[in-house]
Design a protein that fits this description.
A hairpin with a 6-residue loop joins strand 11 and strand 12. This protein has 176 residues and is mainly beta. The chain contains no helices and twelve strands. It has a single domain, classed as Glycosyl hydrolase domain, family 43 (Tachylectin-2, Chain A, 5 Propeller), CATH 2.115.10.20. Strands 5, 6, 7, 8 and 9 form a five-stranded antiparallel beta sheet that branches. Strands 1-2-3-4 form a four-stranded antiparallel beta sheet, with no helix packed on it.
Length: 176
């Protein structure tokens, strides 16, 4: 079977919007279905800082191109000294029960990339995990299967050139 994709004439789906947290760039979408609504977490950038925001659409209206974008980011950069004081990007979400576990790449002067976690009971209001980072690395992707979290991420090779892919497994989503 061969799949064919056709580029939408409406691209970009999430345009840059002057004067907002999405002013300079939008990228790195992650799709999650909660109930009868699709949630698209994505990165926006303004003034050199990446943040994670949200666009939603009811399943009955889903066409892949039309979204309701929240005006403010859901996960913002942290305070000075936090693991995510410079950037939060690369959202990777999974719904377990009624909780959204959202892993993300964090950037700060103390560490080029770490994977941090924020948790939500409604998919909109997130609380950063007090014991971040989860692992050192970046570009997370997560799968929940048979009661276990499978967290994929990359780490820079010791040579400083290129990346190695890693897999960490957890029973609770916090300790890998």
């Amino acid at each position: 079977m061969r799949m064919q994709f056709i580029r939408s004439k409406q691209n970009p789906i999430f345009p840059n919007i002057a004067g907002t947290w999405m002013e300079d760039q939008t990228a790195n979408p992650d799709l999650l279905k909660i109930g009868d609504t699709f949630y698209m977490y994505f990165r926006g950038q303004q003034n050199g800082h990446d943040r994670i925001g949200l666009a939603t659409i009811p399943e009955s209206q889903f066409d892949g191109k039309t979204w309701h974008i929240q005006p403010e980011p859901l996960i913002d950069v942290g305070n000075k000294g936090d693991w995510d004081e410079t950037h939060v990007l690369d959202p990777a979400s999974v719904l377990v029960g009624n909780r959204v576990f959202l892993y993300y790449s964090a950037v700060s002067p103390r560490c080029d990339r770490s994977v941090c976690l924020a948790i939500s009971d409604d998919g909109i209001h997130f609380q950063k995990y007090d014991h971040n980072p989860i692992v050192i690395g970046g570009g997370p992707e997560v799968v929940y299967h048979n009661g276990k979290f499978y967290l994929f991420f990359w780490k820079t090779k010791k040579s400083g050139r290129g990346f190695d892919l890693h897999l960490a497994i957890s029973g609770d989503g916090f300790h890998f």
